[in-house]
């Protein structure tokens, strides 16, 4: 069959359903498809699928395409790489966070920093008396929390303890850093926003309404999401609860009956 006989609208509909890699492949098939695949709205749609938001209106189609391709390349390094399994000898690892260069792990009562390139341990940070249950980092700071409710801040440059923070009455279950502000959450239902340079009391304490299982940041929107039995979305500029996403009662009953 001659694919060139397909109406242009059909090809556009096909291209809209493709991922970034497939869209790039299709643009190499023929001059016609290359022209269709270069249309800005196709890449805006791909961008929205990748990042969950539309690209800024002032960006050119070429800029959006370049960012989509760059994101795909970075992801492929992880998804398609030959993985070499290694045992680092710490079966008690409870949590970790990573970026392109390093991995931060909570192993027993220690926080350990590892290099991606060499696979070697850069540093071991000791000081927690309970099991490390949450870690996070940015370019300047490491934050860790433990099963005894203690939060510790470490300098990324010096890899030394800079402050110990106490508020939680139960285990710390999640940590995050938002524009340099440390955030911790615990099984006690408290979400604490700290100032790394201020005294030990939290700047703000948000009541999540139950044990917090995870935190997720949306820094571009200035929002924090806390996960309990529901999802609470907070505006961090005002520390106000924007909305709470709960499981509908019908689904909750269905889940209960399915597990019995």
Please tell me about this protein's structure.
This protein is an alpha+beta fold. The chain contains six helices and 16 strands. The chain has a four-stranded antiparallel sheet with strand order 1-2-3-4, with no helix packed on it. Strands 5-6-7-8 form a four-stranded antiparallel sheet, with no helix packed on it. A four-stranded antiparallel sheet has the order 9-10-11-12, with no helix packed on it. A hairpin with a 4-residue loop joins strand 15 and strand 16.
Compact description:
With 260 residues, the protein is α+β, with helices and mostly antiparallel strands. It is built from six helices and 16 strands.
Tell me the β content.
Answer: 25-35%
How many strands in all?
16
The major pleated sheet works out as:
4 strands, antiparallel
**Proportion of helical residues:** 25-40%
Q: Structural class of the secondary structure composition?
A: alpha+beta
* pLDDT averaged over residues: 87
Q: What's the total helix number?
A: 6
Overall form: elongated
Distance between the termini: 54 Å
Q: Using the CA coordinates, give the radius of gyration.
A: 23 Å
Which sequence of SSEs, written as H and E, runs from N to C?
HHHHHEEEEEEEEEEEEEEEEH
The strand order across the widest sheet is 1-2-3-4
Ranges where pLDDT stays below 50 over 5 or more residues in a row are 254-260
């Amino acid at each position: 069959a001659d694919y060139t006989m397909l109406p242009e609208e059909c090809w556009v509909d096909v291209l809209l359903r493709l991922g970034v890699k497939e869209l790039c492949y299709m643009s190499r098939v023929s001059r016609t498809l290359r022209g269709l695949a270069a249309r800005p709205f196709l890449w805006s749609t791909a961008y929205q699928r990748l990042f969950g938001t539309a690209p800024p209106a002032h960006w050119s189609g070429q800029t959006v395409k370049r960012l989509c391709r760059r994101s795909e390349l970075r992801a492929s390094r992880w998804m398609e790489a030959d993985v070499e399994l290694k045992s680092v000898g710490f079966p008690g690892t409870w949590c970790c966070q990573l970026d392109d260069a390093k991995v931060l792990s909570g192993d027993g009562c220690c926080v350990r920093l590892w290099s991606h390139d060499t696979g070697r341990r850069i540093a071991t940070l000791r000081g927690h008396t309970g099991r490390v249950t949450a870690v996070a980092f940015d370019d300047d700071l490491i934050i860790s929390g433990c099963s005894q409710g203690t939060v510790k801040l470490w300098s990324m440059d010096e890899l030394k303890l800079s402050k110990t923070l106490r508020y939680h009455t139960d285990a710390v279950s999640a940590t995050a850093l938002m524009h340099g502000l440390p955030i911790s959450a615990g099984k006690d239902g408290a979400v604490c926003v700290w100032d790394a340079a201020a005294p030990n009391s939290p700047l703000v304490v948000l009541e999540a309404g139950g044990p917090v299982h995870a935190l997720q940041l949306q820094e571009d929107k200035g929002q924090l999401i806390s996960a309990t039995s529901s999802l609470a979305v907070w505006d961090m500029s005002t520390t106000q609860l924007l909305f709470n996403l709960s499981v509908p009662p019908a689904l909750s009953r269905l889940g209960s009956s399915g597990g019995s």
